[in-house]
Amino acid sequence: MSFCSDKGDNILQELLNRLKGDLCLAGITNSKLAACWGISPSGVSDVFKGRRQMRFSYLSTSLALLNKGTKTEREFISRYVKVAKPKNRREIMEYLSLRGDFNSLKVIVDQEKESKTGINREWSNVYELIHKRFTEKVELLEFYNLMREKNKKTSCLEMKVLIDLLLCQLLYQTGNHNLISDKMDEIQNNIKEISNEFIEKTFVLRLKEAEAVLLLRDGSVVEARKKCNEILSVCQLNPYYVLPNAMAYFKLGESYIFENYEKSKKYLLKAYEILEDLTYVGVEEKKKMFQYTLSFLKIYHAKELDTLNEIHPAEIAFLKIRQGFKKEAEQMLIKLKKESGTLTPIQTVYLAMAQDNKRLMEEAHENLLRKGDIFYSQMTKIYLGLY
Predict the structure, then answer these.
(1) Could you count the other beta carbons within 10 Å of the beta carbon of residue 306?
(2) CB of 242 within 8 A of CB of 275?
(3) What is the DSSP string of 147-173?
(4) Are 333 and 343 in contact (CB under 8 A)?
(5) How confident is the model at residue 4, as a pLDDT?
(6) Confidence tier at 5 by pLDDT (50, 70, 90)
(7) Distance CA 24, CA 31 (A)
(8) Which of 105, 311, 332, 341 is most buried by its number of CB atoms within 10 A?
């Protein structure tokens, strides 16, 4: 029995032949593939002969073993998607979103919006929003509301879980860490109900990222690092998980900010390096965040200040404080408050330092604790002599 339709026969067989050739050149045997795919060596042979379905998980695992980069992967996937079953097309959308290949994601999203399979149309609507988030300038609150509205119209389990994960991400990006904790157990239990092994694994990875963020903010630094290392172990085997890989290095670097300058710097630079070639708007925001954090690290430790690159206005004020220009820093922060309407808890810390204002520092400390940000409350504790 052939798993290729008459129309897709030549396309798929050509893909299989090229993939087999590339794997042979790389010294990757059927036995090694069998171990990676989770089937027998004879099953691998059947796949390449067209007698057994080439599942997307087999293709993505093979591409990870070859590790030839985005261009090669895009060529293989663009051919495969022409003959892929609806289930595999759903997996491709998730793969591309984690790969950071949002141009290719848009192509398949547009195709699946016209799919004869209702569940694929539902998935395409959610991934269309993910594409929007990374390719357009969208305010976090606006995107949060868009996701909430989409959740009301979504019926399938996988997309409800994905939306919950994205909503959690938006909440911790806006500093509302306490609102997420109650949701985590529910998400974890729902992921266990997902029957698609590929999707289950990628959603577990997304969940681990959220857990790492919460653990770090909660001051559970060792546990946060452990969670980041779990993500990095998965990404090492699956180099196409570009965005989770970068975020894990970023959170790992952040976890060392107050205690180890060199380690923190190394991981923050690694996070930036992973995303360096991606130029989508949403990715640029992440890269800017990495640079801001690196600048904070250098200012906090008063090291390599001549190499400061991207600096948030608040961190410029922090630098002025460290250099002894407190009045100038105070004026900058007051201006920032007028422009944005409020200061974040950390920016309030800077203002308290600029004014030598213990009462304001205590207020900033309470705000950090209220938001569940135990990690950055280390700054206020040191200033208030609570350590």
Answers:
(1) 5
(2) yes
(3) HHHHHHT--SHHHHHHHHHHHHHHHHH
(4) yes
(5) 42
(6) very low
(7) 12
(8) 105
